[in-house]
Specification:
alpha+beta; Nuclear Transport Factor 2, Chain: A
Length: 158
Amino acid sequence: MNNLRFFALCMLVCGIACQSPPTPQENSLGEQDERDVKSLIQGVFDDVWGGMDSTRILQYHTEDFTILENGEVWDNERITQFVKERSQNNYLPLRINEMDYLTMEKYGNAIYTTYNNYARFEQNDSIVGNAQWLESALAIKTPEGWRLKSMHSTYVRN
């Protein structure tokens, strides 16, 4: 039995080690990929987090998406629940998001980015609040286009 386990382990290691790494071209971040990922992130914040539209989550996220949000792990179901609860409030201010990108790197079919997310909250043509988060996101290329696989969000106290 030990020989069988050793053989299986060797096959696994060989399978991983024998895969060719992405070529420099596959790791080269093109302008279109950068625009697509920035648009993806802006879109999810405008439509889901700002627009409170949970029906658009899978337009931006993979089905197994997770976000580390304020010390909690949220998935698409938890985000849907949050959006539905918040949208019950008839007096929600308009949320306007602006991203300041710090880094963006491509690894094959994945792009990792870090950015500051600034939100301005307006109601009746007045600013009622501002917030900032330091965030990271991992986008992966799917048959449907770029989708967010995971994010991490840290609230920045001013």
